[in-house]
Amino acid sequence: MTNIPETGRTPRVQIRLIVIQILVLSLLGTLGGRLWYLQIREGDAYAKEASGNHVQQVVQPAVRGAILDARGVPLADNETRLVVSASRTDLLKMPDDGKGVLTKLAGVLGMKPNEVMAKVRLCDAETPQPCWNGSPYQPIPITDEATAKQALQIRERAEDFPGITAEPQAVRRYPGPGKSNTAQVLGYLSPVTDEEIQQAKDTDSPYLRSDQVGRSGLEREYDKELRGKAGVTRYEVDNLGRVIGQAQADAAQPGSNLVTSIDARVQRVAEYELNDAMKKARQEWDRNTNERYKADSGAVIVMEAKTGRIVAMASNPSYDPNAWVGGISAKDYTTLTGKASNYPLLNRAIQGQSAPGSIFKVVPTAAAVNAGYSFDGPYQCSSSYSIGGQVFKNFESQGYGPISLGRALEVSCDTVFYRLSHEEWKRDGGTKPKKNANDWFYKTAHQFGLGAETGIDLPNEVTGRIPDRKWKLDYWKANKDAWCKYGKKDGSYAEKIAYENCLEGNRMRAGDSVNYSIGQGDTLVTPIQMATIYSAISNGGTLYDPTVGKAIVSADGKAVQEIAPKSHGKLPISQKTLAEMDDALAGVATRGTAAWRFADVGWPQDKIPMHAKTGTAEVYGKQTTSWFATYTKDYSVVMTISQGGTGSGASGPAVRNIYDALYGVADDGAINKKNALLSTPEKDLPKVRTDGTITSPKVSKDPAKEQRVSQEGDKAPDEQQLAGTVPTQTPENRDTRRRRRAGRGGRKRGSRRMLT
Amino acid sequence: MTGANSFQVSGYGPERAGWTRLFARDSLARRLDWPILLSGTALSLMGALLVFSATRNRTELNQGDQYYFLIRHVLNTGIGLALMIGTVWLGHRTLRGAVPILYGLSVFLILLVLTPLGSTINGAHSWIKLPGGFSLQPSEFVKVTIILGMAMLLAARVDAGDKPYPDHRTVMQALGLATVPMLIVLLMPDLGSVMVMVVIVLGVLLASGASNRWVFGLIGAGTTGAIAVWQLGVLDDYQIARFAAFANPELDPAGVGYNTNQARIAIGSGGLTGSGLFHGSQTTGQFVPEQQTDFVFTVAGEELGFVGGGLIIILLGVILWRACRIARETTELYGTIVAAGIVAWFAFQAFENIGMTLGIMPVTGLPLPFVSYGGSSMFAVWVAVGLLQSIRVQRPMSA
């Protein structure tokens, strides 16, 4: 075949045929080369792309664990609601950016089209609320209050509503058992941000786009435990998203339940009494400022003295935690955070700090004993104490003659502490301190845990302040420029103060030490610090880290992880001094400044020994702060009301009522165990069954009101404590919440809870 | 075939009986180009598997019968083989006389497409619907008749020994003959087929020995024409879009570039040995459109990998190599031109088809010879193989 026939074949044609052959082969070579490039060299990249192509993830969010009170009553749980959401990605694919679909949807939901469209726009600097501040790839909830009929309409006509879904979802609910609120302690949730997703990406608990994250309170502190782990199912899909196989499925792990030491009933009583005390204080006339007391804020803590566990913690003003569920409306947000709001989101029990006044005196008492002064004294309780022409008066300028430190506590004699503190100040070198100054009064305060966080399991606790020499110097350095600029030698009072501060604000002056000794001046404490200290005095000197969380119980109840009480130190006093101090504080309740709230009005001191200390702190430019610190062998209760008047006057009745409720004490001093809400702290943990239901007792409609009633007469209310198994979502609780919301929201049902 | 003279078409070779005669030295069967025949059959059967893999889950196409396309593809191959045998039996010389009729018939058919009898598939109005669910794409046959017609004109005087090369007049006649159906196909519009025809014309002219001026003139004219077509808006938007997407599929991954992109992902993910027949996720997931026809190569790329894709290219290479040899070794210019035309046709169409799945050529609706599903294409290709075989079988004319 190789012989070329000797025909009319010309070389031109032969050459051209060879050219064609070479061309053809080079074309095929090109194909082969390209095929090698795609499949061998770049093969891995394309394989990855192909798997991304045909695998779709479906995420089943984990049900968030409940927050329970000490007896198992849910303070925060979930309810199933029909949530209608819109996928922005799908809407933007439509020629009109989904306007048509949203308008149709608005019709079905009975909302205004503008309202719906505002919800799906993204937030930025120029976009006012409502707008969506979550991820644009996440379905944006339009409403979580769709009726079954609306949801059906949307689902049956899916082709009319592309990108719209209507699905049942577990939504956080704060049922508020027995009208308790617990808002600041519980905290709230909001959608996860892109940054948080990035940050948590490589940790063992990464976020999902659809996650809600605890932003404050217990929801934030125990977020990881409560959140659980979302289930992910990976499906193989075809080009139209039709499922052609399931690749992998990790089931969702529901979040654990958090059992707290809160008792919903006591919580309700504490909230009610705090609010009531503040209301009453606003009726009182303040002789110093010649107006009624403002009583603008307050806090009360009920703590188990032997463990540091929180039984109740109330902060006023408060808010409805359900306002955050499903995203907060612009109006609600302004109400909660605006300048005129008085910041109800603040948990004043741990974030409110003010001068403690006389409830501080246990600190200088201990300091004096540590400095070598005898507890028994005697010390002169004059009506006033003067240093270099400056006169420091006793409260209401009363003198008691020579008394012991215990008596000084009982009658709250300021001059005794003025003198002791001043003497120590002088011993330490006065304005020119010695190198190794003892600073007993300041050192002791630090040892009591003041000026530092107590370590409570709630976020953003503040430290308060002990105005020792170091602080004075730091503070002066930070402010001297402003002071020196503003201060005038012969100006107004404020200008004179600034002038003085400019000159010698870096030094501890005699007056500073005197003011400090009675918890005035620059001293700041938080209610939780005082509750911790008074609990320590009650329990023999152990300073416990306060805790709200008591145990973390898995959703099936099988794994129980108890949160044991931890201590952060001991009070720096001997048992003898402690016993003497304990006696003195009992004396306050029996014959001292708080007697008119306890012993004089039927408190069964022999059965339930009460210890108390009152405080009325002066604040420059404001009305006095009312402080009341008390304890029994089981509990310590600390209350404060800003601009509320005197300690025993404004806070006294409320604290007494809380004790009455705890122990079931009637006004005449009779103890009725049946009425006692919690005469000893709850020791057992509530039972979580394997199916996730929780055994919890019923909570009556309003324990606070009932307590008031039972206090007056001896009539025990009907059996309130019918034990029963309450599933996490009872229709009854749901009604409560709906009613409450409907009452507040009025006609615009649902609108204030819309996602924005 | 016992005793039949059916294969003794040209009277060559000694008279022998039955199988012995068929496989005797110098017999017809011995003289057939077996590499081409076997390669073509192998490609067609491979095509059957690939088409089956691509369509067995596409219920919207296969009317609920997962073997629908498989059976038809095998059937088409069988008919194609029969057509080849028929072509060999008739012989290309015999067909030479019938070229005017065949040419006329094919032009008539493509004109028919332009009438309401024609139907549109994928934006190209190039099908004739036949009763029984069959459809015909006459532009496939036009490719054959253009080759035959041009070869007839160009080789007439040379084979008669009058001239060493076709003169200008003949070349112009031949070009005219090719231009008429090309314009009609352009009106359909079936740009891909026109491109193939242009390349065929080029190949035919080269092989005919026509002067270089014609060859380069035609290339120049083709370029000018392409620019003119682009500028004058003869092309539909979708055709331009396909071009743009080929250049950069990432520009519009959801639109036109989708085809290119998904095809490339399918092939790229195949790796060396592929995911195994019926196991390609891109194929099973139906991410690549037109996968049983224009994008059939992606099935091979994904499920059979570099090995399978390379095998297809090699088999095509065998056919083209042998066809080139046939063109070079035949004694008549007529046979040379026909073989060269077929080489140009197969080579370009294969390059264009595979090239577009690999993202190096623009996306046009062209089937991969032998492999793609489609009766008209299959028949035309096998007729062309028959022509090649006939040219080879009848080579020793002087014997």
From TrEMBL, chain A:
InterPro entries associated with the record: Beta-lactam/transpept (IPR050515), Beta-lactam/transpept-like (IPR012338), PBP_dimer (IPR005311), PBP_dimer_sf (IPR036138), PCN-bd_Tpept (IPR001460), Penicillin-binding_protein_2 (IPR017790)
Domain Penicillin-binding protein dimerisation: 60-246
Compartment list: Cell membrane; Membrane
Biased composition (Basic residues): 736-756
EC number assigned by the record: 3.4.16.4
Membrane topology: Single-pass membrane protein
Top-level taxon of the source organism: Bacteria
EC class name: hydrolase
GO molecular-function terms, A-Z: serine-type D-Ala-D-Ala carboxypeptidase activity
Residue spans crossing the bilayer: 17-37
Primary location recorded for the protein, binned into one broad class: membrane
Protein name per its UniProtKB record: Penicillin-binding protein 2
Record gene name: mrdA
TrEMBL record, chain B:
Pfam assignment, any one: FTSW_RODA_SPOVE
Sorted UniProt keywords: Cell shape, Membrane, Transmembrane, Transmembrane helix
Transmembrane intervals: 34-55, 67-89, 101-121, 141-158, 178-207, 214-233, 304-321, 333-351, 371-388
Source species: Streptomyces lanatus
Catalytic reactions on record: [GlcNAc-(1->4)-Mur2Ac(oyl-L-Ala-gamma-D-Glu-L-Lys-D-Ala-D-Ala)](n)-di-trans,octa-cis-undecaprenyl diphosphate + beta-D-GlcNAc-(1->4)-Mur2Ac(oyl-L-Ala-gamma-D-Glu-L-Lys-D-Ala-D-Ala)-di-trans,octa-cis-undecaprenyl diphosphate = [GlcNAc-(1->4)-Mur2Ac(oyl-L-Ala-gamma-D-Glu-L-Lys-D-Ala-D-Ala)](n+1)-di-trans,octa-cis-undecaprenyl diphosphate + di-trans,octa-cis-undecaprenyl diphosphate + H(+)
Keyword presence, Membrane: yes
EC number: 2.4.99.28
Subcellular location: Membrane
Membrane topology note: Multi-pass membrane protein
Pathway(s) where this gene product acts: Cell wall biogenesis; peptidoglycan biosynthesis
Protein name: peptidoglycan glycosyltransferase
Enzyme class: transferase
Tagged with keyword Membrane: yes
